[in-house]
Each structure stands twice: as C-alpha cells, then as structure tokens.
Write a structure and sequence with these properties.
Mean pLDDT: 85
Order of helices and strands: HEEEHHHHHEHHHH
Number of strands: 4
Helix content: 55-70%
Strand content: under 5%
Number of domains: 1
Structural class: mainly alpha
Radius of gyration: 20 Å
Shape: globular
Strand order of the largest sheet: 1-4
C-alpha cells in the first residue's frame, strides 16, 4: 500500500464527488456557483440594508442603498480582479495581458475586492454627504454573508483546499493531483469569517448602541475579525502553487491580513473618538 493509501485509510478521509462548477449551462451562457455567490451576497446585502436604513436617524436612505448597490458591485469586481493580479499572479498577467479580461477563468482576491468596496464607500459618502463611518458600519454588517457564500462556492468548486491532514474530517478533493486527505479550509473560513463574524456584528449592532455612539467601531470589528480569522486559517490552508511563501513563518495571505487588521484597529479608534478623525480635547 502506498503512502497516500495509508494516509487515507488511517484518517478515514471523506472522498468528495466532483461537483459541476456550473449551476446551469446553456452552452452559450453558463451560471457558475462562484458568480451566483457574488450575486446572492450583493442581493442579500441590498435587501438587509434596505431594512436597516428605515430606522430613524439612519445615515443612509433606501434610495442611497439602491444607488450604492451598483457602486459596491463595481468595487467588488474591479478591486477583486486588480487585487488578484497585483498580489497573487502579477508576472503571469504581465506576460499575458489579454488574460486580465478573462474573468470567467477565475482569479479574484478578497483583499482587492474589499479595498474596492472601501474606495466605493469613501467616494459615495463624499458625493452624497453621508457620514463615512456610519455608512461603513452598515456595509460591514452584510459583508460576512458574502464571505460565507464565496467560501461555500470554493468548496463546491473543489478549490482553495487546505494542507494535508489526518484529522477525522479530512477530505480528498477531486481536483487534487496528489489525492491527499486535506483540511476543508473553505468550510473553516465559511464558519469563522461568515457565520461567527456575522453573529458578532449582529450582536454589536442590535444589542449595543455602538453604531450610534461610536461610528466606525463596528466596521473596525469586521476588519479585525476577518484579518485575525484569515491569518489563523492560513496555517491549515494550502497556498496556491504559483505563490511563494513570504518566509517560512508567514504566507502571502497572512501578510495581506496585517494591514487589514491595522485598518480595523484604526476604525475602532475612530469609533472610540466619536466617529471623527479629530482628536478629542
């Protein structure tokens, strides 16, 4: 018996079937699970925010939410694509610039998409004279839902799996050429970055008055929470083959989490300062 068989037998790994990456395929058009996850996340965010902004004193109106959906979509797609190109596969796209537009081949970065949404929030709030930090708190509320759906789509697609493992719930992914039992890191991320982080933000929004007294604090909590959870999960996540670890102790994904955590701490400081950049006297 070879080493892979020994590992599989010893761990009792779950062998996953090969799921179709397309929800529907008409030949001339195919709707992929990953695209559906993005779409569902944006639609849920729009629906949930429409409910929240009906409360008296809300920083945004229902019309603002309708308008911002377009801005958020552009920020997510453009930022996610640019982020993937710059952070993860720059040399390839420099040599094959036409591939930049082939988004159906995959290649989106959450770090880039999140940066795109931040830029969208800044520009939209300035254009509409909305409190930037109050708006940021609202947008942060729904972000974990998009994260959850995106990671579940990664799982269905059999991509971005974890490192080899012998835990009882280890899984063998159909696209893995090594056929090793691995951590289902997509599910870890869906649980921590999606469900747990969403629960934390919901508690802070509905059970405290932070969004009223400390604008920016809840948005900061999202960034710190995501950064910490992603940093920890990187220890059991298999880096993409075309990426080199920054060092033996930190991966590219972990390195990108550090400025996100720092940004979150900054927003929490702004919140504690009453939602203003001016230092309290």
């Amino acid at each position: 018996m070879d080493m892979i068989s020994l590992m599989t037998a010893a761990s009792g790994a779950i062998v996953l079937p090969r799921f179709d990456p397309n929800l529907v395929d008409f030949g001339f058009f195919a709707l992929r699970w990953y695209s559906l996850a993005y779409l569902a996340g944006l639609v849920f965010g729009w629906w949930y925010l429409k409910k929240q902004v009906k409360a008296p004193g809300s920083a945004m109106s229902p019309t603002h939410v309708d308008d911002f959906l377009f801005w958020a979509t552009l920020g997510t797609i453009i930022g996610g694509r640019i982020g993937y190109i710059l952070f993860y596969n720059f040399n390839y796209y420099i040599s094959e610039p036409a591939a930049i537009l082939r988004m159906w081949d995959g290649g989106m970065s959450f770090h880039g998409g999140a940066t795109g949404v931040v830029v969208a929030v800044i520009l939209f709030s300035l254009k509409n004279r909305i409190s930037m930090f109050k708006m940021a708190d609202l947008i942060a509320l729904v972000a974990p839902v998009g994260l959850f759906l995106g990671r579940m789509a990664n799982f269905v697609n059999g991509e971005l799996w974890g490192r080899a493992a012998d835990v009882p719930w280890a899984m063998i992914f159909p696209g893995d050429p090594a056929g090793l039992p691995r951590h289902p890191s997509q599910l870890y991320e869906a649980f921590l970055e999606g469900i747990v982080l969403f629960a934390i933000l919901m508690f802070l929004w509905h059970k405290t008055k932070l969004h009223k007294s400390k604008p920016g604090f809840i948005a900061g909590t999202f960034w710190v929470g995501y950064g910490v959870f992603r940093f920890l999960i990187e220890y059991v996540r298999e880096p993409d083959q075309h990426l080199l670890a920054v060092s033996e102790v930190i991966t590219r994904g972990q390195l990108l989490c550090l400025p996100m955590i720092a940004f979150g701490v900054f927003l929490m400081w702004v919140g504690n300062n009453g939602g203003t950049l001016k230092k309290k006297s």
